[in-house]
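Retro notes
What went well: the complex prediction finally ran end to end.
Inputs used:
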Amino acid sequence: DTAVSQTPKYLVTQMGNDKSIKCEQNLGHDTMYWYKQDSKKFLKIMFSYNNKELIINETVPNRFSPKSPDKAHLNLHINSLELGDSAVYFCASSYPGASQFFGPGTRLTVL
Amino acid sequence: QQQVKQSPQSLIVQKGGISIINCAYENTAFDYFPWYQQFPGKGPALLIAIRPDVSEKKEGRFTISFNKSAKQFSLHIMDSQPGDSATYFCAASLSGTYKYIFGTGTRLKVLA
């Protein structure tokens, strides 16, 4: 199926740990994004990559480090997890300025 | 300049009624305005989108009305159904750029 997929769907971890979330899209899009959705449902963009190059970095703590090995993959690594990092993280992809296609989300819970 | 203001925050509508969600933007350079629907536990999914060269776009029960001079656009859901109960986001973007600005979301509940 053509889609944006993320793994894992759920992630429960202790404060201070390091974790990664993986994203893959097979839609042929050049641009991929990471969004954070908090408990109030606000969608906040974190990063955007175009053809493996970082183009948007929205004042995200440097504990968050995205990595794009190729234009179909965008991973998110989070160091020293904090309670406030608990949220749902969405990966998305699109052509520039066109509709974004979102993954199913990764619910991160930091204890 | 970069905000998209969305209202109401929540909305309760009777089955068969019309649901209306409004958004206002500031940056006149925006030229692409999509609406997304998000069900609990799922990612947002594109519902319908419009460009400012038209004032209205209809797809089934969903209609976007666009007022370029007022810098406002709205989503109308006709004959609202309980299955429409979800969170709706408006967004604005500029063609060829990489950034979307999302509204703050509207939680719609359609009563059976």
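What we learned: Chain A has a mean pLDDT of 92.
What to try next: split runs per interface for comparison.
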